Known about the structure:
14-stranded antiparallel β-sheet
Amino acid sequence: MKNSILKYGLLVFISGVFVGCDTDEANDQTTEPLNQEEVELTAKVDNATEVISDTFLQIYEVEESLVKSPIHPFLPECALVTVEITNTSKEVTVDFGTEGCEVRGGNVLKGIVKMSYVSNIDESTLVINYELVDFFINEVEFEGAKTITRQSTNENGNPQYAMNLDLSITFEDGSQASRKGTKEREWIEGSFNGNWGDNVFLITGEWETNFVNGNVHSTTIVEPIRREASCKFIVSGIVNLVRTNYSGMLNYGDGVCDNKAVFTNVDGDEQEIQL
């Protein structure tokens, strides 16, 4: 999946990572074309954040399904699921091991995902607490503990998930970044039919990405991102990217399942990128 989201702030970061202290040099650097290899890197990282979202939602929906299954059909066999239930709450732990388990889309997950919530499927709104422990997607480590607020029916009659973003990321080369903000996933197609492959989500949100060099980058989804479980990539949506000396729009197209997007900078210059 051409995943939502961490790519956008990182796209701006990587474009400016070679900027020096001289202001004129910085202005020159921000007008350089985006490097294809750098954009592909940001796509991988963003896809990883959407894999996290998918993992939590799949685990919860299977656990609270009215038609219970003895296994989690969307998790690989190597993932160990442990459930602890009290009179009022449920804790679900999924251990992907230290060697890792391959999930749909070919990503390898390592480490532990923890979820806890009050077990009452009749509630219209439910708060799910989550934590990542020694958790890796491929070779990128993600740390965080926050909440997801699940709304069984929004104003459109669809399930919706409000997610607090509070993640620390360590890349394979040891470089680090952090992200805080919010995003919402509206489940507009395929809900509760037992087939994850036909699900469609619309994603909105905004956040800031902070890097160890002190740079802060802001990202806002200005036209909802459409994520289809049947496609590896985001099929439509527009994201606004802002940094002190650099901004532009990333357009994901008109619904075609492909690996292409168009970045337009503030001067109106367009560049097709592949993800």
